[in-house]
């Protein structure tokens, strides 16, 4: 079935929230639902919408998959605590690293994460909580790119002919599926989420593993996490859609302490975009680029080369994997 898009400029947030909360209540009835909060605007909006609809009958989890950014699990749980929403952090680091072991192909990596999330982790949580529904923040862009075969977004099933009830044993509700990112931001603000959440930079479902070319080992995740923290710090005041650090697989010859250092290379990307469908590299100043390179090689052990991507989307995509 074709999904009817609601463009951000035609979105009546109050009406949308009432309608979607009503639909959630109608589907779940007197039962229970769960959802996973990652702190991104999509899952945050779904969390608030679900709580508006179901109150304590929605149980919210933060899945600590070991591939999130620095300090992210606690930071997000504390933001929601202030909003009166209890978030339980689930330690699933080992499960994810085990699933990612030895995988270098981008689509296989996404599939490993999908299976671990939906079968292993949510499967257990659904059994434990006895919920019948999973609420999730799939948006129209996720569906478009998956159906077009560009990237298998980890949260798209029905449009690929996969029935979550059969595959994983629970139903999935997707109240944001008619929106794009700009519409979700409006809904998030209308639901009372702080600007730090409603305007939070997008971050992919496969998290930092989408920013590693080649195998996502705990050590390589740590390198890209460190570089991400520096990149986000340096670019914090830049008005861009999204910025990121990507760890490459190839090594290059460098010099450190007058010795040869066959080291790692990181790529920085910074995007101007409205809805992630198209993107232009941000025209960062030379001083900013230089500061990024200097800080990364000085602070991230083993990195000898930093590059800046100047390719638009398309033909590039925003994430590397
Ligand atoms: P791409 O790389 O496809 O990214 O140009 C477009 C936007 O989508 C985000 N992205 C994802 N988000 N699951 C998500 O929830 C995914 O698998 C995924 N892959 C990419 C990306 O960060 C960008 O904002």
Folded structure, characterized:
This protein has 321 residues and is of the alpha/beta class. 41% of the residues lie in helices and 18% in strands. It has eleven helices and nine strands. It has helices at residues 13-28, 41-54, 72-82, 93-100, 106-129, 140-147, 164-168, 181-190, 195-198, 218-234, 286-299, and strands at 33-36, 58-64, 87-91, 133-135, 171-173, 242-256, 259-272, 280-281, 303-308. A five-stranded parallel beta sheet has the order 3-2-1-4-5, with helices on both faces. Strands 6, 7, 8 and 9 form a four-stranded mixed beta sheet that branches. Strand 7 (259-272) and strand 8 (280-281) form a beta hairpin. Helix 1 crosses helix 2 (41-54). The longest helix is centred in the middle third of the chain and has 24 residues, at 106-129. It is globular, with a radius of gyration of 20 Å. The two termini are 28 Å apart. 40% of the residues are buried. The model has no long low-confidence stretch (mean pLDDT 94). Residues 145, 151, 153-154, 202, 204-206, 210, 242, 276, 313, 317-319 line the site of xanthosine-5'-monophosphate.
